[in-house]
Specification:
Layout (H helix, E strand, L loop, with lengths): L1 H7 L3 H15 L7 H17 L4 H9 L9 H17 L3 H8 L6 H8 L1 H18 L2 H21 L3 H15 L7 H10 L10 H15 L3 H10 L1
Helix pairs in contact: 1-2, 2-3, 3-4, 3-5, 4-5, 5-6, 5-8, 6-8, 7-8, 8-9, 9-10, 10-12, 12-13
């Protein structure tokens, strides 16, 4: 929990120090707790790697869990989704698509297993991925589904930022040529009420990095690192 809080506050080195301590403690008592906690431990280690310019190490760590048995379902879902994000940030869309195809259940199933916030993140990532893959029909259906299933809930919990973000994504999707224009830039600036950089959610910044990369014609991963570490 401490390592996770430090990670969410972008204190990656401190988070990794606690995770190193955790690992040493898991090896005590004849490794009684090792198998139970190791997947969650490795997921958090990989997230710290990914957002501190060591994406390849983060990828390799999580790839060892693909199709691995005896991993708690929620942890497995988190591992897969994180790895999809890494592939996506690295513009390895084929690998991302191959892994996301493992999410073959209904959204309601994922809500029951991992919660609605996790399911919303999954749906957003899938929309962005299908845009970059050029799957027009899938993008249209995913956008309509997202609006129908989640806009009401997002308004209820005062997450207009996500709604505004998706509207901008849809604008880019339908009119990609406008992404580098001054009018689109102003529209983006006026659509978000950003809080202090230190407090802004690291995952929200990851989503915004995709949009900014389209505006600046840069690599998504480099923009992500810039937004989080600058």
């Amino acid at each position: 929990m401490i390592a996770n809080i430090l990670f969410r506050n972008k204190k990656f080195e401190e988070s990794l120090r606690y995770l190193e301590l955790m690992h040493s403690l898991m090896n005590e008592n004849k490794q009684k707790y090792l198998n139970h906690f190791l997947p969650k431990h490795d997921l958090l280690v990989s997230l710290n790697y990914n957002y501190s310019k060591n994406q390849e190490k983060g990828m390799l760590l999580l790839e060892s869990y693909i199709n691995k048995k005896n991993v708690a379902i929620i942890t497995q879902l988190d591992i897969y989704l994180s790895l999809i994000v890494y592939y996506f940030q690295n513009e390895n869309f084929e690998k991302a698509q191959k892994l996301i195809s493992k999410f073959y259940h209904t959204d309601q199933w994922y809500i029951n297993k991992a919660g609605i916030i996790w399911t919303i993140k999954k749906s957003l990532i899938e929309i962005l991925l299908q845009i970059d893959l050029g799957n027009i029909n899938l993008v249209d259906s995913r956008l309509k589904s997202f609006k129908r299933n989640y806009f009401k809930y997002l308004k209820e919990i005062n997450q207009d930022k996500v709604i505004n973000y998706l509207k901008l994504v849809e604008t880019y999707y339908k009119h990609p040529e406008t992404a580098t224009t001054e009018s689109f830039y102003k529209k983006v600036e006026n659509s978000f009420n950003w809080i202090d950089r230190e407090k802004e959610d690291i995952f929200m910044k990851s989503f915004f990095a995709w949009l900014k990369a389209k505006m600046t014609k840069q690599k998504v991963y480099l923009v992500t690192l810039d937004l989080i570490n600058s």
